[in-house]
Amino acid sequence: VQKIECVNHCIKNYSKHLHRIKKDTKSVALETRKLLTNQRIKDLTRNAQKAIYANAHGDISQLKHDLQNSVPCSFGNHSKCQTYLCNHVGDTASDNMSQLVSSGGHHPIFGSLNLIVIKSSQLIDNETNNRAELFMSLLARFNMGKRLNLIQRDGFQMRSYLSALRYNVDQSWHHKSWKQYFSCNALVKTILRTTSSTCTAAMEYGKKNECVAVLKFQEKTGKTVERAGLYIDVDHGFLGASPDGNI
Fold it and tell me: Any stretches that span the bilayer, and where are they (predicted)?
């Protein structure tokens, strides 16, 4: 069983990463930030999305190639562009790729793009599942991420119904119910309506530069780093770890 990634979700995250790079005045050179205009960010995301659309149900290796080439294409180097993706094949008159490389800006940009490239096999079907993901995220909140014993008294079905109400009617219905029947209204309101998560500056820096570190490690050592998920201890199921990658 393999998870199918949502194309819109991946492209949206890619755009967020690019905007973070543009706003990063500490670790990103000024020349890179000047090259990474808002229009160029739109070009980068649009070209990546076009590559996914053009290779739908096709060859995964070709999709990876087209995704990798979306960066040079967006910066004016069309020497490796394909006719089904670009109208300026072979044109290098407005090539800014060399400036991007000299400023070191290609590392964070390709690092952000690599988050899509490594999911090529999961994006090849060009599927979106926004509604399903939203509903399942609501259901996970109601069943506490499958940490409850939901076998007895139709526990899972009841929480599924509650999730459907939350999905269709918005959050107001359960807030009123909790306020009417329970005295812990303030706590429930905080949990259900929270929009922020605990994240320190170090955690934010790590999330933003993780892909860059992996790319530089691969360039320096010549080793391939594969994606890693959550590893659960066999003997102690309450222990888990999620490494940045597997070598």
Answer: none
Residues, the chain, total? 247
Q: Give the tens place of pLDDT for each residue, 138-185.
A: 777 777 665 556 566 666 777 777 777 777 776 666 555 555 544 555
- pTM of the model as a whole: 0.56
Q: Determine the Cα–Cα distance for residues 99 and 210; give it in Å rounded to an integer.
A: 24
Structure tokens that stand for 215 in this block: 């790319």
Between CA 51 and CA 169 the distance in angstroms is 37
Show me where the domains of the chain are located: 7-123, 130-193, 205-241
Please report, to the nearest 10 degrees, the dihedral formed by the alpha carbons of residues 181, 186, 192, 195 taken in order.
160
For residue 231, the surrounding DSSP H or E stretch is strand 231-232
